[in-house]
């Protein structure tokens, strides 16, 4: 599975971080990227943690603003 790519939805919590490291193991670090969603949550600590994790392991991480979710 090293030739395939993975995009991990990373919140910065335990579960999604475990998924990130599983994907790195299965697909190789060079084939893994992560994405997070900023929906206007009060505590942005999770997004900050996700960013730090990705920087530490060398994985691209993008935050997508999704303010519409906060209106639901």
Total domains, how many? 1
Order of SSEs: EHEHEH
CATH topology group: Rossmann fold
Output the CATH class name. Answer: Alpha Beta
Give the structural class.
alpha/beta
State the distance separating the first and last CA atoms. 38 Å
Poorly predicted runs are none
* Whole-number mean pLDDT: 91
Helix content: 40-55%
GO molecular function, one term: ATP binding
Catalytic activity: 7-carboxy-7-carbaguanine + NH4(+) + 2 ATP = 7-cyano-7-carbaguanine + 2 AMP + 2 diphosphate + 2 H(+)
Enzyme class: ligase
Keywords: ATP-binding, Ligase, Metal-binding, Nucleotide-binding, Zinc
Overview of this structure, please?
The protein is an alpha/beta fold and 72 residues long. The chain has a single domain, classed as HUPs (Rossmann fold). The protein contains three helices and three strands. It has a three-stranded parallel beta sheet with strand order 1-2-3, with helices on one face. Strand 2 (32-38), helix 2 (45-57) and strand 3 form a beta-alpha-beta unit. The radius of gyration is 13 Å and the shape is elongated. The termini are far apart. Pathway: Purine metabolism; 7-cyano-7-deazaguanine biosynthesis. Its EC number is 6.3.4.20.
Give the tags:
72 residues, alpha/beta, Rossmann fold, 3 strands, 43% helix, nucleotide-binding, ligase, ATP-binding, Rossmann-like_a/b/a_fold, EC 6.3.4.20
Write the layout of secondary structure elements.
Elements: E1 6-9, H1 14-27, E2 32-38, H2 45-57, E3 61-65, H3 67-70
Parallel strand pairs: 1-2, 2-3
Family: Belongs to the QueC family.
Keywords: ATP-binding, Ligase, Metal-binding, Nucleotide-binding, Zinc
Pathway: Purine metabolism; 7-cyano-7-deazaguanine biosynthesis
